[in-house]
Amino acid sequence: MKKISLWLAIFTLTGSALLFAEKAPNVVFILSDDLGYGDLGAYGATHFETPACDRLADEGMLFTDAHSPSAVCSPTRYSVLTGRYAWRSWLKNWVLMENHPLLIDTNRLTMGKLFQQAGYTTGCVGKWHLGWGTELGADLGSEPKPGPLEVGFDEFFGVPHSHNSAKAYQVFMRDRRILDLEPGVNFRSKEAMAKTVRKLEDTAIDLSKEAVAFVERHKDEPFFLYYPTTNIHFPLTPNSRFVGTTRAGVYGEFVVEFDWAVGQLLDALDRHGLTENTIVVLTSDNGARPHESLNGHACNGPWRGTKRMIYEAGHRVPLIVKWPGKVKAGSVSNETVCLTDFFATFASILGSNVPNDAGEDSVDISPLLLGKEYQSPLREATIHHSVSGQFAIRMGDWKLIEGSGDGDYPRNSEGKMDVKTWQPVKDPSTGEWVKLDYFQLTPDDQHQLYNLSEDPKEMRNLAEEDPGRVQQMLDRLNRIRKQ
Q1: Which of 214, 266, 376, 412 is the most buried (most CB within 10 A)?
Q2: 3-state SS, residue 478
Q3: Are residues 186 and 287 in the same domain?
């Protein structure tokens, strides 16, 4: 009742600024891990079926030109929750390691805090991978903080880092505690791991149960559920119930398991009469990582490259938004959008004012969702970023890549990943983390310019033919980076 009363007070203060008038809509944000543009039936997959995700597309809006802000996971997660490109933080490329501190500044306004301020109960169920504590090597066994609870979530249950973490980190945490860890026992010890290490093949099922339980606990009050799944990040570990269900081997089975988990959540919304008043967003943190079992399945659809790369397959992702009665069922949008945009969009839906130092790279796409008139393009420019820190800028049909490479890991003379440092740099005067730059790219003063409307596979570099456009887009990229 306290949460609902707070929402009523906010409604009284903001009046028509809210896009809802009777009851605050619940919000479920499903962020899959490494799900490719071509991995859903709604996006053309034929080697397996994804009925739950396809249902969302049938009942909502499907985007053909949506982009993750990074071609790898930690930066995208930061950007989704803050509305800010991660390269503006101290993480300049790649992802966080298990010993790294929390990437999000606890003083920064986040998506979770937006919902908390509007009277919502907020929960995160799934893969965190945004760091813990304030120093290197936070002890997960000692209730580390800050973490999810300090940046906008009332509840957390999930995987502290990634699905492929070292064994001691293959655990579940509830809020700040490792599940089944006995007091005084080192979480890295064999004694602890015998009880705490999760079964990889049961992870999606366990997380699904927690997501459904969150909905059931809070069905009578407005809630925001951030649901970053571990599927379909390697190692590919589908539960045995999904074995043999696809023509794309274990890869397809992991996607089908993801779709099953989405279906469990949609069923819970139906069961409790919440479907008509719940916004569901389904997307991915970056492009797909191809697997030997694909058997011809185009996991990244028609796009060039893979996860990690600066080419389209690295960051063009599936995106479906469902909001019954508000978003037109079965609609398709070709508008260029970025996952950073949901920060400003949810703020608009909530009628919340965003200060100038928050959501800096977020654009409100609610007019598009609601079928209202808007000036296209919504985004004058969108910045793409690869695992190695290579930049690209998209403006209309044009995409400019800074540098001649594909943005993947730099390699040394032996063909191995060329990592210059593993640790972030701290400012000794302030104690703040200021930089983690794993890779030191050497500028080659080359550029790649593509017209995606005429050359969607990025095969014909027009940089030498149109140097004026190259300079114009490079100037815009530099202005955005310096903002």
Answers
A1: 214
A2: helix
A3: yes
Structural domains in the chain (count): 2
| CA quadruple 207, 211, 217, 222: dihedral sign | positive
CA 281-82-345 angle, 5° bins: 45
| Integer-rounded Cα radius of gyration of the chain | 22
Instruction: Look up the CATH number of the domain holding residue 320.
Output: 3.40.720.10
Q: Residue 460: inside a domain, yes or no?
A: yes
Alpha helices in 320-385 (DSSP H): 341-350, 366-369
State both tokens at 355.
């200060």
Token couple for 160: 């502290």
Enter the pTM of the model: 0.95
Pair 361, 398 in one domain: no
Phi/psi of residue 161, each to 5°?
-125, -100
pLDDT tens per residue across span 18-32: 444 468 999 999 999
User: Domain of 190?
Assistant: 2-14+23-374
Is residue 379 in a domain? no
Note if the bond before 377 is cis, omega within 30 degrees.
yes
The pLDDT tens digits for 433-477 are: 999 999 998 889 999 999 999 999 999 999 999 999 999 999 999
Hunting for tokens 């930690």 — which residue is that? Answer: 74
Spatial distance between the Cα atoms of 153 and 150, rounded to a whole number of angstroms: 7
Spatial contact of 250 and 238, defined as CB atoms under 8 Å apart = yes
